[in-house]
C-alpha cells in the first residue's frame, strides 16, 4: 500500500488536471442518474398521454450529450495524468540506474534493468490511467444510481443491496492473490527480457557454437514460465465476472419479488418500478468495473513495489556533500597503501598494499600477468570503484573529497574493451566534447591514424557505425577510442591495452601519436609491448594484486625477478607477430 501512496505522490503536480477530471466525472454521474430518473416520467406521463414529448426528447439528448462530455474529458485527463506520471517515473528510474556503481551493473543484467524501465512502468501506466479513472467515475455513477433507487423506494433499495456486502470479502482475498501472482509475472517477464537481450547481442557466438536450438529452448522455457504465471493472474481475475453476474441476478430477483407485492398493494407505480429496475440494470456496468478496480490496483502495487525497490537501491559512488571541484592537476598522484576487493559480502582482496607516487607529467607502465589486477588498479582513479582501504590522493587531496565531475573531467581513458555508440563516427569521437569543431575531430582522427579509413567509409565522418560499432574492425574501433580520448585532452591519461588490436604498422604510427600526446601529461599505461614499456618513467610490476617490483626497464631486468621472468616468457612482446601468425 505504501507504494501506492508513493505513486500518488507522482500525480501531485497535476492536481489541477485531476480536479477538472473529477468535475467531469461528477457531470457524468449526475447526467447518468438523471437519465435513469426520466424513465418513470416517460412511462407514467409521457407515453400514456403524449404530454411533454418534445421536452422529454430534448432532455434525453441533452443529458446524453453532457454524459458523453463528462466521459470524454474525464477519460482524456486521467489518461494524460497517467502518461505524465509514467514519463516522470521512467525518467527518474533511468537516471537513478545510470548513476549506480559498476558493482550494481555486475549484479543486474541489462535485460532485467530494461524490463523494469519498460514493463513494470508500463504496467503502472495501464493501471493509473484505467484504475484511478474507473475508481472515481464509476463510484460516482454508482452513487448516482443508488440515489435513484433510494429516491423511489428506500426499502426496496435496501432489499436489493443485501447481497453486496457478501462480495467484499472474496474481492479482498482475490486482490491479495493477484498481487502475489502479478509480481511473479513481472519477474518472469524480466527473465525473458534478460535471455532475449543476451542472446541477441551475442548472436555471433550463438551461431558459431551452434547453440541456436539451445538458446531457443532456453527462451521458450522463459515463455512457458511467463504463460503459466500470466494464466495464474487470469485465473484469479476470471472469477470476478461470474460473481458480479450472480449478484446482479439475485438483486433483480429480489426486486421483482418485493416490487410485484408493492405494486399489487398500490404503494408503487409500474413506471416507478420500471425506472427502479432500469437503474438497477444500469448499476451493473459500473459495479463490474469497480469489482476489477481492486484487482488492477493490486497489479499496480506489485509493479510499483518493484520500481520503488530499485529506486531505493543506493550503490552510487558517494560524493561528499558540497564536495569542492578538483583544481587543475599540478603536482602528483599518490596511491597510499591501497587495498581493494570487488565483493563486499565475501571480500577477496584483488589489490593489496599498493603504494606509489606519480609526479605530474610522468608516465607509469603497469605490467603483470593476466588477472593480476592492472585494469582494477586504473579503474580506481576515476572512482568506478572506491578503495576498500588506504587512499588515493591527487595533489594531496583524497579523491573521495572532491566532486566526481571535476575528477573525471581531468581523466582521459581508453579502456581495454572498446565501447562505441550507435551513432556517426564524428559523434563517437566527439562523445565527451560535444562542442568540438569538425576540424578538431579530424585533427585527432588523423593523430590516431583513423582519418584514412574514415574517408573510405561510405559517408565519411557521418557514417553510422552500428550498435557497439560493429560495422568497424577491431583495430578501427580502437583507433576511434584513441581519437576520442585525444579530443578530451585531459591532463591525466589512462591507456589500458589501447593499441592491442592494431597491426604492427598501425600500432607504430599510433604509438607515435600517443607518445606526443603523453609528453605533457601524466599517464598510466597498461601494455604488453616492450616498446611502450621502455619509454615509461617507472614500471610497476603487479603480481596477484601486489606490487612486486617497481623501477625502470634495465634496472628491473638486471634484478632478475618477476619482470625479468615476464620478459623471458615473452609476455612482454618485443614485436608483435604479424597477422597473428608467429614468424620464425
Ligand atoms: N567486476 C568484477 N567482479 C569481481 N571480480 C572481478 C571483477 N573484475 C575483475 N575481477 C577479478 O579481479 C582480478 C583482476 O582483474 P583485472 O581485470 O584487474 O586483471 P588485469 O590485470 O587487467 O588482467 P588482463 O591483463 O587480463 O586484462 C581477476 O582475478 C578478476 O577475476
Ligand atoms: Mg585488464
Protein described:
It is built from 21 helices and 10 strands. It is elongated, with a radius of gyration of 36 Å. Strand 1 (332-341) and strand 2 form a beta hairpin. The longest helix has 46 residues, at 53-98. The protein is an alpha/beta fold and 584 residues long. Among the domains are: 2-311, ABC transporter type 1, transmembrane domain (ABC transporter transmembrane region fold); 417-489, 3-Layer(aba) Sandwich (Rossmann fold). A 6-stranded mixed beta sheet has the order 6-7-8-3-9-10. Strands 2-1-4-5 form a 4-stranded antiparallel beta sheet, with no helix packed on it.
Radius of gyration: 36 Å
Structural class: alpha/beta
Mean pLDDT equals 87
Largest sheet: 6 strands, mixed
> What is the CATH topology assignment of the domain at 2-311?
ABC transporter transmembrane region fold
Question: Which architecture of the domain at 2-311 per CATH?
Answer: Up-down Bundle
Task: For the record, give the distance between the C-alpha atoms at the N and C termini, rounded to a whole number.
Answer: 73 Å
Beta content: 5-15%
In the sheet with the most strands, the strands line up as 6-7-8-3-9-10
CATH superfamily of the domain at 2-311, by name, is ABC transporter type 1, transmembrane domain
How much helical structure, as a percent, in the residues? 55-70%
Number of continuous helical runs: 21
List low-confidence stretches: 576-584
CATH top level assignment of the domain at 2-311: Mainly Alpha
Amino acid at each position: 500500500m505504501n507504494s501506492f501512496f508513493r505513486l500518488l505522490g507522482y500525480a501531485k503536480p497535476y492536481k489541477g488536471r485531476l480536479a477538472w477530471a473529477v468535475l467531469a466525472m461528477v457531470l457524468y454521474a449526475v447526467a447518468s442518474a438523471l437519465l435513469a430518473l426520466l424513465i418513470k416520467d416517460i412511462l407514467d406521463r409521457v407515453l400514456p398521454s403524449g404530454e411533454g414529448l418534445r421536452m422529454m426528447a430534448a432532455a434525453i439528448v441533452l443529458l446524453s450529450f453532457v454524459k458523453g462530455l463528462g466521459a470524454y474529458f474525464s477519460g482524456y485527463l486521467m489518461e494524460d495524468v497517467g502518461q505524465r506520471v509514467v514519463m516522470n517515473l521512467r525518467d527518474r528510474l533511468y537516471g537513478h540506474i545510470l548513476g549506480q556503481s559498476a558493482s550494481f551493473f555486475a549484479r543486474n543484467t541489462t535485460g532485467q534493468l530494461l524490463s523494469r524501465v519498460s514493463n513494470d512502468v508500463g504496467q503502472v501506466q495501464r493501471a493509473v490511467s484505467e484504475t484511478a479513472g474507473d475508481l472515481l467515475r464509476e463510484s460516482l455513477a454508482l452513487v448516482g444510481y443508488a440515489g435513484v433507487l433510494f429516491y423511489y423506494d428506500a426499502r426496496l433499495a435496501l432489499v436489493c443491496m443485501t447481497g453486496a456486502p457478501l462480495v467484499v470479502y472474496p474481492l479482498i482475498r482475490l486482490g491479495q492473490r493477484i498481487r502475489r501472482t502479478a509480481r511473479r509475472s513481472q519477474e518472469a517477464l524480466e527473465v525473458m527480457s534478460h535471455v532475449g537481450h543476451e542472446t541477441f547481442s551475442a548472436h555471433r557466438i550463438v551461431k558459431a557454437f551452434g547453440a541456436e536450438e539451445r538458446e531457443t529452448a532456453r527462451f521458450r522455457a522463459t515463455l512457458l514460465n511467463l504463460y503459466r504465471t500470466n494464466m495464474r493472474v487470469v485465473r484469479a481475475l476470471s472469477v470476478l465476472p461470474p460473481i458480479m453476474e450472480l449478484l446482479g441476478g439475485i438483486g433483480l430477483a429480489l426486486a421483482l419479488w418485493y416490487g410485484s407485492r408493492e405494486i399489487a398493494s398500490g404503494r408503487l407505480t409500474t413506471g416507478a418500478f420500471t425506472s427502479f429496475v432500469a437503474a438497477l440494470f444500469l448499476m451493473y456496468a459500473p459495479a463490474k468495473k469497480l469489482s476489477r478496480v481492486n484487482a488492477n490496483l493490486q497489479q499496480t502495487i506489485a509493479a510499483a513495489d518493484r520500481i520503488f525497490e530499485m529506486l531505493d537501491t543506493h550503490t552510487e559512488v558517494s560524493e561528499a556533500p558540497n564536495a569542492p571541484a578538483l583544481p587543475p592537476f599540478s603536482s602528483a598522484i599518490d596511491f597510499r597503501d591501497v587495498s581493494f576487493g570487488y565483493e563486499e559480502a565475501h571480500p577477496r582482496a584483488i589489490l593489496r598494499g599498493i603504494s606509489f607516487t606519480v609526479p605530474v607529467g610522468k608516465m607509469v607502465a603497469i605490467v603483470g600477468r593476466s588477472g593480476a589486477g592492472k585494469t582494477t588498479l586504473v579503474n580506481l582513479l576515476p572512482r568506478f570503484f572506491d578503495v576498500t582501504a588506504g587512499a588515493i590522493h591527487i595533489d594531496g587531496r583524497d579523491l573521495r573529497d572532491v566532486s566526481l565531475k571535476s575528477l573525471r573531467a581531468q581523466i582521459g581513458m581508453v579502456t581495454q574493451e572498446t565501447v562505441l555508440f550507435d551513432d556517426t563516427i564524428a559523434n563517437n569521437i566527439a562523445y565527451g566534447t560535444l562542442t568540438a569543431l569538425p576540424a578538431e575531430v579530424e585533427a585527432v582522427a588523423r593523430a590516431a591514424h583513423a582519418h584514412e579509413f574514415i574517408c573510405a567509409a561510405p559517408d565519411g565522418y557521418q557514417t553510422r557505425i552500428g550498435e557497439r560499432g560493429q560495422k568497424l574492425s577491431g583495430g578501427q574501433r580502437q583507433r576511434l577510442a584513441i581519437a576520442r580520448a585525444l579530443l578530451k585532452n585531459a591532463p591525466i591519461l589512462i591507456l589500458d591495452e589501447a593499441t592491442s588490436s592494431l597491426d604492427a604498422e598501425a600500432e607504430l604510427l599510433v604509438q607515435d601519436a600517443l607518445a606526443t600526446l603523453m609528453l605533457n601529461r601524466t599517464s598510466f599505461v597498461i601494455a604488453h609491448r616492450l616498446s611502450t614499456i621502455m619509454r615509461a618513467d617507472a614500471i610497476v610490476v603487479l603480481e596477484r594484486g601486489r606490487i612486486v617490483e617497481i623501477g625502470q626497464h634495465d634496472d628491473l631486468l638486471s634484478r632478475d625477478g618477476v619482470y625479468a621472468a615476464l620478459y623471458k616468457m615473452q609476455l612482454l612482446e618485443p614485436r608483435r607477430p604479424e597477422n597473428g601468425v608467429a614468424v620464425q
